[in-house]
Amino acid sequence: MSNTNYADCACCPRLCRADREGGKKGFCGEDMRLRVAAAAIHRGEEPPISGKGGSGAIFLTGCNLRCVFCQNYQISHQGMGSFVAKNEFANICLALQERGAENINIVTGSHAVPAIVQALECAKMSGLSIPVLWNSSAYETIETLTLLRDAIDIYLPDLKTLDGRLAKQFFGAEDYPRYAVAAIKTMLEFKPHQVIIRHLVLPGHLESTYDVLRWFADNARGRADLSLMTQYTPRPPYPPSAPQRYVNNCEYDTIMSWLAEFEIDDGYYQELETGSEWLPDFTQENPFPSELSIPVWHWREGYSAAPRLD
Ligand code: SF4
Prior knowledge:
alpha/beta
């Protein structure tokens, strides 16, 4: 049984029981206060999410999954970010809306749901009117998702793997498949046709991708889009247990043939490209390449004076 308060935290499947109200931290590395690393108008999401104006991404500090290959490891593993009160979080949402964001895209907030619900209420009372998008690993409990239900318009969950052995190796969470499947089914029930399921292909582990594609075809086709990501990028400090290379051409062709085999048409896939220029650096006011994003708020610099996208 999980709860959704911070005093005896069971907000996510880790069930740490940490007293976050008393200042203790669980696996996610965060106490009860909200910490944010950056907010930006982001053009690198799927086409309907980025839209014309860009997606208003807010990157939370901390993570309840902490993949060994996380591209945002500075904020998920190393705790980069600064504390924001709920009215400040609301102001960040409003600043994104003011700069033309199509939506508020809350990135990796699963460990901070009670605080986010309050902050979004505050933002909506202050004039936030664009849709709110939940961008998560899907390592979440149904109770926590239910707490969020009224606040979220669109879901963007990962389905990283259905293989408990890989989940243990890469996230230390052998139960990830069971929780992620239940979470995604709940999202599909809450908002049918407003769910995009993301899957990052792991080089050398194509059997995991095959299982995910089959699951999508059997369980979500027609009610969700699939976003197939082949951007895996090896870089230090990834530990030796993480894949150390890019997806190769042979793997890419195989995956494309599986999309045809499973008759998966609804969704998006990336061109195969190698290079690490796009990887974020959250020490910078704009953590992403300038063609991909315009900074709005940064954990050290505060609000940016950068102009809006037109
Ligand atoms: S939200 Fe954090 S403290 Fe709470 S159960 Fe999950 S990892 Fe543990």
